[in-house]
Amino acid sequence: MPSSLHLRSLRLALAFWFCASVGVPPAAAQSGTSAVPLPYAPSPSGDRSVSLKQLPGNILDDQKDIWLFPTKLIHGEHWWPTIGIAGVTAGLVASDPHTAPAFRTTDDFSGYNRVFSGTNTAALIAAVPATIYAVGWLRNDSVAQDTALLAGEALADGFLLAIPLKSITARRQPLTYTGNGPYTDSFFNGSHNPFHSGGFFSVHSLAAFSVATVIAHRYRQHRWVPIVAYGLAGAIGFSRLTTGNHFPGDVFFGGAMGFVIARYVVLPVQ
Predict the structure, then answer these.
(1) With 60 as the cut, is the pLDDT of residue 20 above it?
(2) What integer is the mean pLDDT of 54-74?
(3) Collapsing DSSP states into helix, strand and coil, what is residue 164?
(4) Percent of all residues in the chain with a pLDDT value above 90, rounded to a whole number
(5) What sign has the CA pseudo-torsion 76, 77, 83, 89?
(6) How far apart are CA 230 and CA 9, in angstroms?
(7) pLDDT digits (tens, 9 = 90+) for 125-161
(8) Residues 215-228, mean pLDDT to the nearest whole number
(9) Do residues 33 and 253 lie in contact, with contact meaning Cβ atoms separated by under 8 Å?
(10) Cβ(111)–Cβ(4) under 8 Å?
(11) pLDDT computed for residue 126 by the predictor
């Protein structure tokens, strides 16, 4: 596939995600009359207050909740969701010798990998909240601006969680193996640099699902927004498998943490 087609495909994916995010009319012009509800208007009532000034404090509060989560387990809270995520992750890790070769012994995803490369997907994830904020600022649309800030908050929370976990687990990337592996010695045998590719878990997957969850929640009145947002997040997560950067367990756990942090830490439970 020509490189120009890959670039057009990436731009199309960005356009779809962006339209799903901010495809709402600008805030009504200030006047003496109340704004008439529009069919694409989101309903983010009840979401936490956020601004550039409040963002650092919000992130600190979030980190407290995230790192003190084990105390809630001690008191008998949230056991079933925790068991579910841990169980699926453990099952996927155990299946590495069977699932990893399927992606390491084929070039069927070469075109897909060029479009959804690590650089392209990272740029896409970062561009979405940045663009939403810019458009919201130009339109004087507080809903769009707050959505972008909440997405950025979820991203920051996820990165701060990933740094120590990736450093400790030091998981090798599948691409460092050949053929059938064995893929059973991946933990603690890779780089302990948390900013190095690989490791447990997938930050790309976490970031994609963090942004998707915030957008899907804030614009949930428009039914196709969650479909597009989560669909693109899933495509990004899948690309971490096809490129050999992560194992399935890394991608699943990263996506699950992105959803949980965005939905239950950054956003309110309704």
Answers:
(1) no
(2) 93
(3) helix
(4) 62
(5) negative
(6) 18
(7) 999 999 999 999 999 999 999 999 999 999 999 999 9
(8) 91
(9) no
(10) no
(11) 93
Backbone torsions φ then ψ of 60, nearest 5 degrees: -65, -45
Q: Average pLDDT of 208-213?
A: 97
Q: How confident is the model at residue 46 (pLDDT cuts 50, 70, 90)?
A: low
pTM of the model: 0.80
Q: CA-CA distance, 137 to 145, in Å (whole number)?
A: 7
Q: How many CB atoms lie within 10 A of CB 266?
A: 28
Q: Where are the domains of the chain?
A: 52-266
DSSP character at residue 187: T
Residue 106's pLDDT is what?
Answer: 86
Closest C-alpha among 206, 210, 219 to residue 150: 210
Q: Are 125 and 211 in contact (CB under 8 A)?
A: yes
Q: What is the mean pLDDT of residues 121-128?
A: 94
Cα separation values, 82 from 69, 86, 128, 159, Å: 11, 6, 30, 20
The count of other CB atoms within 10 Å of the CB of residue 264 is 15
For residue 266, the number of C-alpha atoms closer than 13 Å in the C-beta half-sphere is 34
Amino acid code (one letter) for 34: S
Q: Are 161 and 68 in contact (CB under 8 A)?
A: no
Taking a C-beta distance cutoff of 8 angstroms, is the pair 150, 266 a contact? Answer: yes
- Rounded to whole angstroms, the Cα distance separating 55 from 19 reads 25
CA distance 44 to 221: 10
User: Distance (Å, rounded) from C-alpha 52 to C-alpha 182?
Assistant: 48
CB 208 within 8 A of CB 255: yes
CA–CA distance, 134 with 144 (Å, rounded to integer): 9
